[in-house]
Specification:
The chain is elongated and about 70 Å long. 53% of the residues lie in helices and 16% in strands. Helix 1 runs antiparallel to helix 3 and helix 3 runs antiparallel to helix 4. The chain is α+β, with helices and mostly antiparallel strands and 184 residues long. It has 2 domains: 97 residues, Ribosome-recycling factor (Topoisomerase I, Chain A, domain 4), CATH 1.10.132.20; 68 residues, Gyrase A, domain 2 (2-Layer Sandwich), CATH 3.30.1360.40. The protein starts with 5 loop residues before the first helix and ends with a helix. The protein contains 4 helices and 6 strands. A 4-stranded antiparallel β-sheet has the order 3-4-6-5, with helices on one face. Strands 1-2 form a two-stranded antiparallel sheet.
């Protein structure tokens, strides 16, 4: 029996999803509920994601409106957004929190593109780690009963094809996000 790629495919998809979610948090100058993903709020004796505690609406491209389901958490949510290092200033307006999203300067856009490239490079390194582990598993099959040299070579070629397809997905993600960051 040759190498089973189901475990590799699962790890590959998990890695890609992690990278996609990391890239989504980059601010483009447009309001998006994804901007609040890294915000952890102290609530009920533990840290919880903001989306678990409130609805996040985007009435226009420059504003987020956060409506906590438990109105007693308004102050905690405001503090959590301020501490999340998103360079956003939440404004409490009664039972809701308004978060203006300022448009980015050209310099800030270029800085975001640099961050994007760093995140994509880190993602490619993660993909290489996953590939290396799978390659070791494939090569460990050499000499096993029922596994020929040709089987190992074919599995290694399949592994490389899958890896290149994943890298291409990251390149596409980088290109689309970069266009989004640089468009005004």
């Amino acid at each position: 029996m040759t190498y089973s790629f189901s475990n590799y495919d699962q790890k590959l998809e998990t890695t890609l999803e992690h990278i996609r979610s990391d890239v989504r948090t980059l601010r483009t100058g447009r309001a998006s509920a994804d901007l609040m993903d890294p915000v952890l709020v102290e609530a009920y004796g533990q840290k919880m994601k903001l989306v678990e505690l409130a609805s996040i609406n985007v009435p226009d491209a420059t504003l987020l409106v956060i409506s906590p389901w438990d109105k007693s958490l308004v102050e905690n949510i405001e503090k959590a957004i301020a501490k999340a290092e998103l360079n956003l200033n939440p404004i409490v307006d009664g039972d809701v929190i308004r978060v203006p999203v300022p448009t980015l300067t050209e310099e800030k856009r270029r800085e975001m593109v640099k961050k994007l490239h760093q995140k994509i490079e880190a993602g490619k390194a993660m993909l290489r780690d996953v590939r290396t582990k799978a390659k070791q598993d494939i090569e460990a099959q050499k000499g096993n009963e029922g596994i020929s040299e040709d089987d190992v070579v074919a599995d290694l070629e399949t592994l490389e094809e899958k890896h290149q397809a994943a890298v291409a997905k990251l390149d596409d993600l980088q290109d689309s996000k970069e266009k989004e960051l640089l468009s005004i």
